[in-house]
Amino acid sequence: MVLLTIARADAMYSSVAMSVTILELALIATNEHLGNFSLEFTLISQLVISLIIEFASGSMMSFNFGLARTTVIGFWLKLLSAFLLLAGFALSYIGYFYLAWFIIIMSFVCDAAGTGCLKTTFRPSYNMMSIFKIGEPADYVNSFKYYLYIRLILPFILLGITIVLIGFFNEKVAAIAIFSMIMILRLIQIFQSKKDLDCIHKEKNNNNVLGFYKLKDFLSVVKLNVPNSLLFITGNIFESIVLMYSIGLLYKYQVYLNLPNYLAWLGSSSVAFVIYLFSAVMGNQIMVRLKRFETSIKLKQSLVLVSLLASTLLLISPLGASQFITLSFFSLIGVSVGLIMTRIAINTALYEFDERKSVVFFLFVETMTTGFIILFSIAGSLFFKEDSVIKAFCVGLIVFLLSYFIYTFFVKLPSSYEKDS
Fold first, then answer.
1. Average pLDDT, whole number, for the chain?
2. Which fold has domain 1-203?
3. Using only C-alpha atoms, what is the Rg of the chain?
4. Eight-state DSSP code of residue 317
5. Which secondary-structure segment (H or E) carries 143?
6. pTM of the shown model
């Protein structure tokens, strides 16, 4: 019963996150009223805001309100973000360009604050609930095989409705309807999380502050498991690049396919949905089978090599239809491999760390992910000309993947062989 509760919440968390990402990136990338570089500006502004806000919100909220309440607050902030984004779009349609972007930036602030709360406390909260009810940590690898219909059907329904709205209604009506769907989903998540975590809401000990986080806390947690931190950051970077930028870029690259506007939007949306669909099916069919290999270094290195292949192909592909294809492949591999990497790392962290250390772990790795993505973006604007951001992402990701591979090959593998001997 507890595993099913965790699986249902996790299915809603991931499917809604992916669906909202696809819909919001599509709307921003195709909204001519926001300017020609709206997607790139959105990426940079979200990254900078995330670096400033996510860590602060995650640490301060959990410090003051505890894990369960911070999770619920995170969903409320996501709801507010959707409302503000809708307001920003409405203002852009009537010509208030700068005011529209101001409101959209405020939406990004709320989104970053909500993301910081959820990244820090969502999984530790349900882990605490599992320990409270059955005395065992939550299993986020095994839970992936349940509620597959939520992971698959929900994004499919949202995408189908969106295609109909875009195809048969004007952009204003379509935007209002799409954002209304997003806000309804956020309300469902708020109600669900409050109900699921009610047991630890009532526990006074679990609502006490976790204590102020010092630099030595982060260093000690990372030192306990360097490979797991590297694995999470590597997978999270790959997955975040896809969710935050490359899916939106697909909507711009569709012009190279020379399709009519309606079919082009449909084609790009279908690619985005197939990316998510493939990752969900892989998680259901393969990830559970990989459970017994969670600690296998060779498995993790194999995931890294596949990621290197996808990144290299995108880096060397010329601008045009071939780049649309390689970007689609890159996104497909990124979401799938990133999903496996992060879930293996999450399970390891929750099994090895207590409540405080698990929060510190997620604060550290999520902040490092955002920091590295910002670094890649800045490097792209300085050293690349055409398709600067995505090329820089590829170079940065290749460097990071090689670093993890070399570390595990020359440090971790020899030490494991010494223990076996």
1. 76
2. Growth Hormone; Chain: A; (1.20.1250)
3. 21
4. P
5. none
6. 0.72
Tell me if 368 sits within 8 A of 129, measured CB to CB. no
Question: From CA 364, how far away is CA 247, in angstroms rounded?
Answer: 26
Asked if 308 and 330 count as a contact pair (C-beta separation under 8 A), the reply is no
| Domain 214-414 -> CATH class | mainly alpha
Domain boundaries, the chain: 1-203, 214-414
Contact of 8 with 146, CB cutoff 8 Å? yes
CA neighbor of 58 nearest in space, from 357, 373, 364? 364
Residues 98-130 as b/e (b if ≥16 CB within 10 A, e otherwise) read eebbebbbbbbbbbbbbbbbbbbbbbbbbbbbb
Length of the chain: 421
d(CA 368, CA 114): 18
Place of tokens 């609502």: 207
pLDDT of 245 higher than 70: no
Contacts of 142 (CB under 8 A, 6+ apart): 3, 288, 291
DSSP state of 385: -
Q: Are 1-203 and 214-414 the same fold in CATH?
A: yes
